[in-house]
Design brief:
There is one protein chain. By secondary structure, this protein is an alpha+beta fold. The protein has one domain: 2-Layer Sandwich (Beta-Lactamase), CATH 3.30.450. It has four helices and four strands. It has a four-stranded antiparallel sheet with strand order 2-1-4-3. A hairpin with a 4-residue loop joins strand 1 and strand 2. The two termini are about 15 Å apart. The model has no long low-confidence stretch (mean pLDDT about 95).
Length: about 130
């Protein structure tokens, strides 16, 4: 993934955040789960910086939406307590793996700053940059 692609995804996510009137932190990690690009909209919660980055990393580490990992990590689930691994994971919606046109994982996007439904919606909008 290039920096230009990551910045385009952040731009799409910011447009969606403005459309639904929320302030977001948006993180993009590359295929190695390294932070490639980040944006904090003015006034977005400071505590959500770390959450956005961890959502992106979590989505990349396991190549699935963080909300799906959350379902599997409930008490009695096959991934119960997984959020304590890897120096802390985030297992609620807002992190989505990014796939290239060839289906290969290029990285992931993580968004935090509102409800998990809004976080996921804004992250999904960022994915439009890769369509």
């Amino acid at each position: 993934m290039t920096l230009a692609q990551a910045e385009a995804a952040i731009q799409k996510a910011k447009e969606k955040a403005k459309e639904i009137d929320v302030l977001m932190n948006i993180a993009i990690v590359d295929a190695g789960a390294n932070l490639l690009a980040f944006a904090r909209m003015e006034g977005a919660w400071l505590g959500s910086i770390d959450i956005a980055i961890k959502k992106a990393k979590t989505a990349r580490y396991f190549d699935m939406n963080t909300g799906e990992i959350g379902k599997l990590s409930q008490p009695g689930g096959s991934l119960y307590n997984i959020e304590h691994s890897n120096n802390g994971l985030i297992t609620f919606p807002g992190g989505i793996p990014i796939k290239g046109r060839d289906g290969q994982i290029m990285g992931a996007i993580g968004v935090s700053g509102s409800t998990v439904d809004n976080d996921h919606s804004v992250a999904s909008a960022g994915m439009q940059a890769f369509e």
